[in-house]
Design a protein that fits this description.
By secondary structure, the chain is α+β, with helices and mostly antiparallel strands. The chain has 3 helices and 4 strands; from the N terminus they run E-H-E-E-H-E-H. A 4-stranded antiparallel sheet has the order 1-4-2-3, covered by helices on one side. Strand 2 and strand 3 form a beta hairpin. Helix 1 crosses helix 2 and helix 1 runs antiparallel to helix 3. The longest helix is centred in the N-terminal third of the chain and has 12 residues. The chain is globular, with a radius of gyration of 11 Å. 34% of the residues are buried.
Amino acid sequence: MPEKRVTVASKVGLHARPAALVAKAAAAQPVAVLIAKDGGDPVAAGSVLNLMTLAAGHGDEVIISADGEGAQAAVDAVAELVATDLDG
């Protein structure tokens, strides 16, 4: 199962607009993408509500993972968004 550790770049964390953008990208992937804070339980990254309840703030490290065909590309796509400041 591919996974990638990435630091949340958005100043508001994975909340509001950044959460919506990440959830949309995750839901568009051909496999289910999971996201977790270090030491926490993974949640479905395709849900805005899940992302907001994750309470991942600016500078927090999260782990993005997926399983199945196309999993690495899905993880990379979602990780790139999380690592981008989406507040603008």
